[in-house]
Design goal:
By secondary structure, this protein is mainly α. The protein contains eight helices and no strands. 79% of the residues lie in helices and 0% in strands. The chain starts with 5 loop residues before the first helix and ends with a helix.
Length: 213
Amino acid sequence: MSRFSAPQKTLLVATPLIVLLLIYMFPALTHSLGRSRGVAIALAIYWGAVCFGFGLTIIGPRNLKRLYTRPKTANTLNLALAILPVVLVFFAAFLPITATLTPRILLLATLFAIINGSAEELFWRGAFIRHFPQDARYAVAYPLVLFTTWHIALALIKGAQYQGGALTLIGGAAIMGLLWGILAWRTKSIYLSTLSHIGVNMMAFPAVMLVNG
């Protein structure tokens, strides 16, 4: 790995270790502390320490403005990559449950969507785009595999249920991660991918909350 810079090496080596830790931590905490408390603590660690903590450290605060640069011109493909996932999840997950939604679920889902979408795009797309701006293998493909794999941790949460089961959860992460990765790569920004990610989460999270009580 001599051709990589120190931050690149750190990102490439640390990220799979983080994924392994998450796959252990989520089921371990939910088994020992109960599902609600365990998930809350695990997500706080994931969002706070991994995505925001490690993500901001490896990116560097001075580079954030560039990562969140809004594309100057509208591009049909970029807009499609951003909007299509939200529309698909709206029809697949949100629309069928609209009659059973409550204001509390909508409020919590929106809050979690903003936190999760912002946190994950900062780390999974932002950090890799920042350090591998000219190499799609490491900016898109490498984090896509690991982003998809980390969702195994969610599938292993004690008592957790998902529409379509664990394979749908993991497969959906792979598809969305690919679209967001391509979008971030094309724009060299996580502005649109973050908005898209938040939108998808807002459509998907209410169903997850309903199914899991």
